[in-house]
């Protein structure tokens, strides 16, 4: 097992699963866990072939067709949790007790290009040939969906979310995100790396275990492509201008030395908040220890405020937008976009005709109202937790 000490005293231990997939343990500083980890002794079926991408010629979007994902685990009982540490009765994905664990997804939307290990998917026969190739139009165009999908387990506990973790554990997860961003960005053919957390059945979560994912794409995603286009049409320092404008507005909900959280001027969702670093950094791997140290408690305060809006936990998507690997590094700034479809205690916003079909949005909650409600919720949780603003 390969071991390395990372920032904040986090220790990474690298190993492999029975079918050759990578597994990384990230130990908290001062962890009670020992250095030894169990070997994955399962007998597993061969890994599925890498999925195929098809070009939507009307939009230029690449659509991944990954039939293997149709059969992934759906809301298992606690004694069959695939993200829990293995037990004699539960041959899960993680052989040992852990603090934070990251491993390659068994049912990925994007898979390996090369047969790098025993049981790995076969060599991709039709991998993308670069950004120019992916940008070319044409009917019936396909490419192999080269890339990587990883699962990030925030805790060995069977239930919870990022927001239910301690500051120490949150800092370990942030270190893991940064470490994996750097490693995945260096893989051949990867164009963008995306860490995210889906939380809540309303979002479509299939496992209640506290976890997130990281996707490494073979293309620049459509959302980021539109952002790059807007930067070209406005100014290379567009993100700095946005942050300056928002910091002078009534939409700020939290502000630290290195980060500011705000409801954006043109928020689409009933609950939408962005979290942005004060200096330009393209991705989590480029953040400093000081920025990561502040992010852990600040992000937890934000998430606990989000949960305090209603009597039950708030469903959300927490999306860490990072600059592409090869373009836009000096203009696309790392930032979190947290969105929730919940517009009232018992009501959700559904994307129906206009939004789903035409991408034309209508918001029911003003961003200023949303910011005020979220500030009040954060203040309540701060008071309970004894946090001074």
Automatic annotation (TrEMBL):
Residues 54-220 form the Galactose-1-phosphate uridyl transferase N-terminal domain. It catalyses: alpha-D-galactose 1-phosphate + UDP-alpha-D-glucose = alpha-D-glucose 1-phosphate + UDP-alpha-D-galactose. It comes from the Bacteria. GO terms for molecular function: nucleotidyltransferase activity. Pathway: Carbohydrate metabolism; galactose metabolism. Its EC number is 2.7.7.12. Keywords: Carbohydrate metabolism, Galactose metabolism, Metal-binding, Nucleotidyltransferase, Transferase, Zinc. SUPFAM superfamilies: HIT-like (SSF54197). It holds the Pfam family GalP_UDP_tr_C. Its cofactor is Zn(2+). PANTHER family: GALACTOSE-1-PHOSPHATE URIDYLYLTRANSFERASE. NCBIfam families: galT_1. Belongs to the galactose-1-phosphate uridylyltransferase type 1 family. This is Galactose-1-phosphate uridylyltransferase. It comes from Microbacterium sufflavum.
């Amino acid at each position: 097992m390969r071991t390395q000490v990372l920032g904040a005293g986090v220790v990474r231990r690298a190993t492999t699963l029975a079918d050759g997939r990578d597994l990384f343990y990230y130990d908290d500083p001062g962890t009670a866990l020992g250095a030894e980890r169990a070997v994955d002794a399962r007998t597993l079926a061969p890994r599925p072939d890498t999925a195929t991408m098809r070009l939507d010629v009307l939009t230029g979007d690449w659509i991944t067709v990954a039939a293997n994902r149709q059969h992934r685990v759906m809301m298992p009982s606690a004694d069959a949790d695939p993200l829990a540490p293995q037990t004699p009765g539960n041959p899960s994905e993680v052989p040992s007790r852990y603090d934070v664990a990251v491993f390659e997804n068994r049912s990925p939307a994007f898979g390996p290009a090369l047969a790098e290990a025993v049981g790995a998917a076969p060599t991709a026969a039709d991998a993308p040939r670069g950004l120019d190739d992916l940008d070319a139009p044409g009917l019936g165009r396909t490419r192999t969906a080269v890339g990587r999908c990883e699962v990030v387990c925030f805790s060995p506990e069977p239930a919870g979310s990022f927001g239910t973790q301690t500051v120490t554990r949150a800092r370990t997860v942030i270190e893991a995100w940064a470490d994996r961003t750097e490693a995945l960005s260096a893989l051949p053919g990867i164009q963008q790396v995306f860490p995210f957390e889906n939380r809540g059945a309303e979002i479509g979560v299939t496992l209640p275990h506290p976890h997130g994912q990281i996707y490494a794409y073979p293309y620049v995603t459509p959302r980021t492509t539109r952002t790059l286009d807007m930067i070209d049409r406005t100014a290379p320092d567009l993100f700095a201008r946005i942050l300056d404008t928002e910091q002078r507005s009534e939409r700020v909900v939290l502000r630290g030395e290195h980060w500011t959280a705000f409801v954006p001027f043109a928020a689409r969702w009933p609950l939408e908040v962005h979290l942005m670093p004060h200096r330009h950094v393209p991705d989590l791997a480029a953040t400093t220890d000081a920025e990561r140290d502040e992010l852990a408690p600040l992000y937890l305060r934000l998430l606990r405020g989000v949960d305090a809006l209603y009597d039950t936990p708030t469903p959300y998507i927490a999306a860490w937008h990072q600059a592409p690997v090869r373009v836009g590094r000096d203009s696309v700034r790392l930032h979190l976009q947290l969105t929730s479809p919940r517009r009232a205690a018992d009501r959700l916003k559904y994307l129906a005709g206009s939004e789903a079909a035409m991408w034309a949005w209508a918001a029911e909650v003003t961003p200023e109202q949303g910011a005020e409600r979220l500030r009040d919720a954060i203040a309540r949780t701060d008071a309970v937790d004894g946090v001074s603003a």
